[in-house]
Structures are given as C-alpha cells and as structure tokens.
Amino acid sequence: MIKRLTESILQTRLGDGKAIILMGARQVGKTTLLRDFFAQNPDAIWLNGDEKDVQSLFENSSSSRLKAFFGKKTIVVIDEAQRIRDIGLKLKLITDHIPGVQVIATGSSAFELANKVNESLTGRKWEYRMYPLSFEEMVAHHGLLEEKRMLPHRLIYGCYPEVVSRPGDEKEILKQLAESYLYKDVLWLEQIKKPEGLVRLLQALAYQVGSQVSYNELSSTTGIDFKTIERYITILEQTYVVFRLGSLSRNLRSELKKSRKIYFYDNGIRNAVIANFNPVESRTDMGALWENYIVSERMKFNEYNRRWVNSWYWRTKDQKEIDYVEEKDGVMRAFEFKWNPTRKHKTPGLFLNAYPGSTFTVVHPGNMEEFLLG
Q1: CATH for 33
Q2: Long-range contacts: 244-253, Cβ < 8 Å, 24+?
Q3: Bridge partners, 310 (sequence order)
Q4: How far apart are CA 258 and CA 214, in angstroms?
Q5: Where does a domain end: 129, 163, 186?
Q6: pLDDT tens across 266-313, in order?
Q7: How far apart, in whole angstroms, are the C-alpha atoms of residue 310 and residue 312?
Q8: Which residues pair with 260 in a beta bridge?
Q9: Domain containing 165: what range?
Q10: 126 has which bridge partners?
Q11: Are residue 350 and residue 277 in the same domain, yes or no?
C-alpha cells in the first residue's frame, strides 16, 4: 500500500481538542486513509454524510443526543460531511460540548463554498488538503528511478490512486472520475440542470493550460457569460478540479497586473476532459502537459510539507515570461519548465535586475527531483 504523507500530519493533531477537517476531491484517498488509520481502533465510529439516516441524526440534534449516540466512542469520523446541513455548527457542538471526543470530517467540496465550517469553527479546527498521489509519495513507495521511468505515463494518466493501482484500466477510471466531478459535486452545488456549458468551459481550460487565460475569451469560446465563467471557475477551484496562478506585479510598470493561468490538479483529468490519451511520443501539447504536471506537483509538495510560500507566474506587456515564481522568507526563486532539456532558453535579466537576490532555474525531467523533493 502507498503510504500517504497526510497520515503523519494527522497523527500529530489527534486529541488536541480541535476538529480535523480533511478536504480534497473525490477518490483522492481520504476515506481509504482514515479507514486504514482507524481500522484497529475500537474507539472509532464512522458516519457517512451521504446517507439519509446520518443526515437525519444531525438534524436538530442537541449535544446530549449526540453524546448518547456516540456512547463510549472517542473518535468520530464524518465522511462527506458537506452533505449535512449546517455541518459547521454541528462540528462546533461536538468540539465545544462533548469533551474527550476527537471529530474528523472529510469533504470533497462544499465546506468553503457556503462557509459551512470556516465561520462556525474559527480557532477550533485544523484544516488539511489531500490530492492525487504525489511524486514524493510515489518516490517513497518504489524509489526515484522507478518513478522517473513512469513519468511519461503520469503525464498522460495522472496520479489518482485507483489509476495508479489498476494499470490497464486507466481510461475507464478517468472517464468515471471526470463525470463524477461534473455530476456529483459541481452540478450539485450550483443546481445546474444542463452540464453542457460547464463541459465546454473545462475543455477550453484544458486547451489553455500553461497559457494566460482571458475570461472574455473563454466567454466568447464557450458561449457562457462573463459572470457565469467567473462563478464556475471559482467552484471548480473549490472542488479541487483546477487552481489559479496569478501574475507577479510588484517592481515594474510593464508587469501584467491582473492576469492568471489555470492548471488542473491532475493531468489524467485534464486529458480525460479533452478525450486525448495519446502517448507522449505523438503529443503536440507536451509543453503544456509538462508544465501542468510540474506546477501541480509543486503545489502538493508545498502543502504536504507545510511550506508557506507565495506563488505566481511572471509576464510583461512585451511578453517576457517566467513560468513560475515562488517567494519564501523574502527570497524570490524563478523557474522555467522545459520538457526538452536541450531547448535553448534565455536567462531573464529583466526579472533578476528587478528583484535583486532572486535566482533562476530551468526544471526538466533530468533534474525534476531537485524541484519536487527539496
């Protein structure tokens, strides 16, 4: 079994009096992690927020009734907790009024959308995110050499646990995962009756990975109005389908100030959306695939290692560009991503002069471990 980095993080937080909130898209392994973690623990009780009787249990429940239901159990796991009405208030009720009970809630999406947890549990929760399997986790599982050998496969099929563990079934699994995103979470949250527009938007975003994204252009391409585009992208972010990377604008008048790039958290989902699983040898979008993979893996690395950084891309009005810039403890580090390490690149003198003390590195398959493991 592939050990998840989140496990050690959770271990340090158990029993300290705060609720633990574990967020992440469906099928990234939240439930599997917790079941394995508490499999031999007789003090744990498991509740599934998708089930009607569990939802009814929490409807108008007092702390006394919940305490009686939990009995002598000291660990309460609520899976898919966003399905429970006023879940933030219910978690607060347990945390504040049932001492000695550790509550752990998982959610594939909607906590943040309606502030179901954040407003009610201020100062009373630890919140963590889980993603598809990371490069770091896979290296720990079967070694650096083997994982680098699998890179062409990861670029096409991504790193969802079921995709990784069931070779040969990748396309069918990814098709089901992509539909699960669209129909179980995003559509449910927005009560969208016809998903065609959302599908068109996802496809447009998939084709623009690695490029500056214009909402006006997306609106023209998809036939969806600007405000709806904005709302859909926010929901896609909060359901862990995509994430935005804004532009750095601080020291130069020529820097773009309000532009953004949008990436998918998983290459397999990106390729499923456009129904293209051709191997890397025949792809015309290898630059986009490599950039999406390496940026999303860096996001995982920063999250799992609790690295507090600011992240951007950098571009000027005359189209000088750097793929990724990270600031940590006041130090700027700039990175360019090249699938082909022999391709020529220019050291960005304008950026280095504008941000004294900054560094610049080209990341390619030959040195990727330096970027993703340290």
Answers
A1: 3.40.50.300
A2: 245/295, 245/311, 245/312, 245/313, 245/324, 246/312, 246/313, 247/212, 247/312, 247/313, 247/314, 247/315, 248/312, 248/313, 248/314, 248/325, 250/355, 251/354, 251/355, 252/316, 252/350, 252/354
A3: 327
A4: 10
A5: 129
A6: 999 999 999 999 999 999 999 999 999 999 999 999 999 999 999 999
A7: 7
A8: 213, 246
A9: 135-372
A10: 20
A11: yes
